[in-house]
Design a protein that fits this description.
single chain, binds flavin-adenine dinucleotide, Aspartate Aminotransferase, domain 2, about 350 residues, 11 helices, alpha+beta, three-stranded antiparallel beta sheet, eight-stranded mixed beta sheet
């Protein structure tokens, strides 16, 4: 296994597990009161990343997505929170230490699917579809959208559903809420796609809760500089007279937020005011804890940059029905370092 050049990420599998605390034990509270109140005050009011791992973990199913513009919430927590501590145990932002850099990797390749078009090279869709075709997984946790670009996270159970969910939605989809209610003993095999914070949350779910360790077979991490709350992104676009229903694709490239097919673009910095506080503390650009990371930068147009971290995935990736090329990892590392610079640890 090689290390990324330059700044070394503090990533790696199992990093989500807290040292010095036995598996299964409750973490110390930071405030008196129930665990949900701790989570709400310490994390949700300031640095929540909207992964919704707490929604998936809450055994009484009390935590839910109550709005597209705020973190998950437990409306009846005073009465119904059983103080079990699972929401805190799986939260990637509790005792948060930012990860960064390129992280551990085995190989990086530029990948363009021969079958599917996607946001870039369709590599994520190709990997997920191949995993279904090879009977490695039953479900893929992906994010689709409605006609107004509202992101919808769901467990895709067919190749068609995975293909229909291709493309980037630049909005918080609270993806791990789609794992809520999975039966404990069921033997579903699931792949998850998510931004770096979601990947960290999956590692916590796996280290803290046996059912997720069994069910989640691999995690594809997307590169990510920032994400947005859906209502705020829509307001930004509407103020610029953009008819959201006519948008076929949104992209961020070379400092510009671009809308297709109109080709209207804005400097990404125009969106700075609507970057959620939870994104402003994140330094992980490449999803260092994933099995496979996929992004846009570093590869020619029409290709995805694929960084293989888990050795078991190298043969899977190399046997994809795809064209392959070289990756410029220096560019990826430059952006990874830029994210650290704009989000210094306070
Ligand atoms: C919020 C966000 C910010 C990003 N920022 C950058 C960046 O700064 N630089 C860069 O190089 N790459 C960035 N990416 C990654 C890039 O946009 C592509 O997703 C990546 O290159 C994969 O392209 P593809 O053609 O292989 O994927 P596709 O085959 O098109 O598949 C994309 C997959 O992503 C999933 N997805 C879409 N939106 C979301 C979402 N909001 N949350 C979770 N999963 C989602 C879909 O379900 C689908 O499975 C970002 C992605 C997201 C979601």
């Amino acid at each position: 296994m090689r290390w990324g050049k330059g700044r070394r990420g503090r990533g790696g599998k199992g990093m989500g597990k807290k040292m010095g605390r036995g598996k299964g034990s409750k973490p110390p509270k930071k405030l008196p009161g129930k665990y949900f109140e701790n989570l709400r005050k310490v994390v949700m009011e300031s640095i929540c990343c909207n992964c919704a791992a707490c929604v998936a973990a809450c055994p009484v199913k009390g935590i839910s997505i109550t709005s597209y513009s705020s973190p998950p919430y437990f409306p009846e927590w005073e009465n119904n929170c059983t103080d079990c501590g699972f929401c805190v145990r799986v939260c990637p932002r509790w005792d948060y230490v930012p990860l960064n850099g390129l992280g551990n990797y085995i190989e990086a390749l530029a990948v363009k699917s021969k079958r599917f078009s996607g946001q870039d090279g369709g590599a994520v869709t190709e990997i997920l579809v191949s995993a279904m075709e090879r009977d490695m997984i039953d479900f893929a946790l992906v994010v689709t959208k409605d006609e107004n670009w509202r992101p919808i996270a769901f467990l895709a159970s067919s190749v068609e559903e995975v293909i229909n969910a291709s493309g980037t939605k630049y909005s918080h989809a609270f993806p791990l809420s789609a794992l809520k209610g999975l039966r404990g003993k069921g033997n579903e095999r699931i792949a998850v796609v998510g931004t770096p914070c979601v990947v960290s949350a999956v590692r916590k779910l796996q280290s803290e809760m046996g059912k997720f360790a069994r069910k989640i077979r691999f995690v594809i991490g997307l590169f990510c500089m920032e994400n947005f709350y859906y209502p705020q992104l829509m307001e930004f676009l509407q103020k610029r007279d953009i008819d959201v229903t006519s948008i076929e694709k949104m992209d961020i490239k070379k400092g510009k937020f671009i809308i297709y097919p109109s080709d209207i673009s804005f400097p990404v910095k125009d969106l700075n005011n609507i970057v959620p506080s939870g994104c402003k503390v994140c330094q992980d650009f490449t999803s260092v804890q994933s099995d496979v990371s996929v992004g846009s930068v570093g590869s020619p147009d029409g290709f995805s940059t694929v960084i293989v971290r888990n050795p078991e995935f190298l043969s899977t990736v190399k046997s994809l029905n795809a064209e392959f090329g070289d990756v410029d990892l220096d560019v990826v590392e430059k952006l990874a370092n830029f994210k650290v610079k704009i989000h210094p640890v306070k």
